[in-house]
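note to self: dont lose this again. the chain is below, predicted strucutre after it. 113 aa total, dont forget to put it in the shared folder this time
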Amino acid sequence: MKKNLLLTAITVILLGLTVSAQQSSEIQCKKSMDEILMEQSFGIDDPISEDARYIVEDLINRLNEFYEILSANELDDLEITIEEIDKVLVRAKEINLNLSMFDADLIEVESHK
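---
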């Protein structure tokens, strides 16, 4: 009986750790590119929208890379990736992009600086 209880407790803990790891290993913003662009201060047909699209794509790629590095526990590469994310954020600020949909992701990045 004690053995079964112990095995059940271990299983629950392992499942909890697995779910926790899965939640933190992917980008948290689930909006589509069009949804992100529609939340900007400019129209989706505005010429700056093309620049915004490239910046958002770059940010999404960098965030995915960030989470992959965390999942693989390759912390040596983390600093470079965070620097690259910061560069993307500078470009985003230059055209006044609304990146509020990435707040949870950016807080996660900030916590690893």
